[in-house]
Amino acid sequence: MTLPFDNPRVSGAPLIIGGGMAGALLALLLRHHGAPAVTLVESHALGGGEAPDTPSFDARSTALSAGSLAVLAELGLLDTLLERAAAIGTVHVSRQQRLGLTRIRAAEQGVARLGAVVENRWFGHVLLSALGRDPAIRVRAPARLSGITRTVDGYTATLESDAGASETLHTPLLIAADGAHSQTREWLGIGARHRDLGHDAVIANLALATPHQGIAYERFLDDGPLALLPLPDQRFALVWTGPREQADAWMAMDEGAFLAALRQRVGAGVPALTRVGERQRYPLVLTEACAQAVPFAAVVGNAAHTLHPVAGQGFNLTVRDLALLAERVGGQPDPGRLSRLQHWTAERQRDQALIHRASHWLPEWFRVRQPLFAHSRQLGLLALDLAPSLRKGFARRAMGL
Ligand SMILES: Cc1cc2nc3c(=O)[nH]c(=O)nc-3n(C[C@H](O)[C@H](O)[C@H](O)COP(=O)(O)OP(=O)(O)OC[C@H]3O[C@@H](n4cnc5c(N)ncnc54)[C@H](O)[C@@H]3O)c2cc1C
C-alpha cells in the first residue's frame, strides 16, 4: 500500500511508527476501541497485493494462540485468516531420544483448537487489507519519522516519505512499534537491554509424505529447541535453533544433507519430511525496553520485548499487550496521559514477567546434561502427561487464555 503524501496537517490522532505485526494490529485495535483516527508510518512499501515483503511479513510463520485468535475474531478477521492457516489440535513436547513426553490436546482442554499457524505474508495481507478498508487509518509508507519534539499535550512529529515529501503533525500518543532496534524508542530517551544468545533460528517450510493431522512438535535437543508447526497443504514450518556456527553449517548444507540432519534430530513418530524450501536465519537477541510508557508515548512489540522463539510466545504476548492498551486508551480524549499508560504497564507486568522467565529458562532447563537433572526433567514431562490438571494450567498459559 503506497499512499501519496497529501501533506495535511493532521492533529489529534495516535501516531504509530512501524507497520509490522504489532503496529498494524494496534492501529486496527485502537479504531475498534473508539479512536476516531490513527496514523501509521512504515519504512517499507506495504505492497497491497497478496504478499507484502517487510521485516515483519517475511518468510516466517507464526503460531497464534487461541487467545490471539479470539482478538482477531473480535476484529472480524478470523475467517479470512483461517482460509490459509492450519489449526493446532495437539502439541507434542519431548526431549531428544528420552523418555519424557507430553501431549496437549485441544479436545482435552475443551477448545476447538489450541491455536493456528499462519504464514507471515498471509497474516500481513489480512492485516494490511483491513487497514486499507478503514478510511480513518492513514498509512504513510514508505516513510519514516525524522524528528520529534515534546509539547505540553503530546509530540510534534516530522515524517519524510522516500520520495522526499515531508509532513508535520501533532499527536497526543506516539507509539514505538519499529522493532527491536527502535529509533523511536531511542528518541524518546528510553534505553533497552540487549542480550545476544549466540544462537540463531533457521526457518524453512517442509513438505511431508503424509498429513500432519494438526500436530505441532516441540523437540528440546542438545543444540537448542526445534519446532515443527503444521501448515496448510501438508507442510510444516520449521524453527530450528542452535549455536551460530551450527546454524552456519545448516545453512550451507544441500537439501539432501539438511533433510538427513533434520530427520536424525526429529526422530521417529513424525511424518516423513520430503522437501525443504528456502532457508532463512535470525540471530537470537533478547531485547527488553527499560520502560514501556512515558508521558504521551508507549513502546510495543519487538521494541518493548523480543523473546526466544522457543514456544512461539513473542507475538502472542504482544497481542495481549496491544488488546489491553487499545481498550484502555482507544476512546479516550487524552490517550497519552501518563497515569493511564502506567496503569496499562502495571496490568501487563505479571504476564510479561512470566513469559520472559519461561522463554529464557525453558531452553536452559532442557540443555543441562547432569544425569540427575535430566531424570527430573523427564519426570517433569511425564508428570505433565499424567496429570491433567497440571497440563491444563500449562496449556491455558500457552494458549494465552
Ligand atoms: C524465527 C522466529 C519465529 C517466531 N515465531 C513466533 C511464533 O510462532 N509465535 C509468536 O507469537 N511469535 C513468534 N515470533 C516473534 C514475532 O516474530 C515478533 O513478536 C513480531 O515480529 C513482532 O512484530 P513487531 O511489529 O513488533 O516488530 P517487527 O516485526 O520487527 O516489525 C517492525 C516494523 O517496523 C518497521 N520499521 C523499522 N524502523 C522503522 C522506522 N524508522 N520508521 C518506520 N517503520 C520502521 C519495520 O520495517 C517493520 O515493518 C518469532 C520470531 C522469530 C525470530
What is this structure's SSE topology?
Blueprint: E1 15-17, H1 21-32, E2 38-41, E3 61-65, H2 66-74, H3 78-82, E4 85-88, E5 90-95, E6 101-105, H4 106-109, E7 115-119, H5 120-133, E8 137-140, E9 143-151, E10 154-161, E11 166-171, E12 174-176, H6 183-187, E13 192-208, E14 215-220, E15 225-231, E16 235-243, H7 244-252, H8 255-266, E17 273-276, E18 280-289, E19 293-294, E20 297-299, E21 305-306, H9 314-329, H10 338-367, H11 371-386, H12 388-398
Parallel strand pairs: 1-2, 1-12, 2-8, 5-14, 12-20
Antiparallel strand pairs: 3-7, 4-7, 5-6, 9-10, 10-11, 13-16, 13-17, 13-18, 14-15, 15-16, 18-21, 19-20
Helix pairs in contact: 1-5, 1-9, 9-10, 11-12
This protein binds flavin-adenine dinucleotide (FAD).
What does this 3D model show about the protein?
With 401 residues, the chain is α+β, with helices and mostly antiparallel strands. The protein has a domain at 15-62 and 121-193 and 285-359: FAD/NAD(P)-binding domain. It has helices at residues 21-32, 66-74, 78-82, 106-109, 120-133, 183-187, 244-252, 255-266, 314-329, 338-367, 371-386, 388-398, and strands at residues 15-17, 38-41, 61-65, 85-88, 90-95, 101-105, 115-119, 137-140, 143-151, 154-161, 166-171, 174-176, 192-208, 215-220, 225-231, 235-243, 273-276, 280-289, 293-294, 297-299, 305-306. A hairpin with a 4-residue loop joins β14 (215-220) and β15. The longest helix has 30 residues, at 338-367. The protein starts with 14 loop residues before the first strand and ends with a helix. Mean pLDDT is 87; it is low at 1-10. The chain binds flavin-adenine dinucleotide. Flavin-adenine dinucleotide (FAD) is lined by residues 17-23, 41-44, 54-56, 60, 62-63, 144-145, 177-179, 183, 201, 203, 239, 282, 301-302, 309, 312-316, 318.
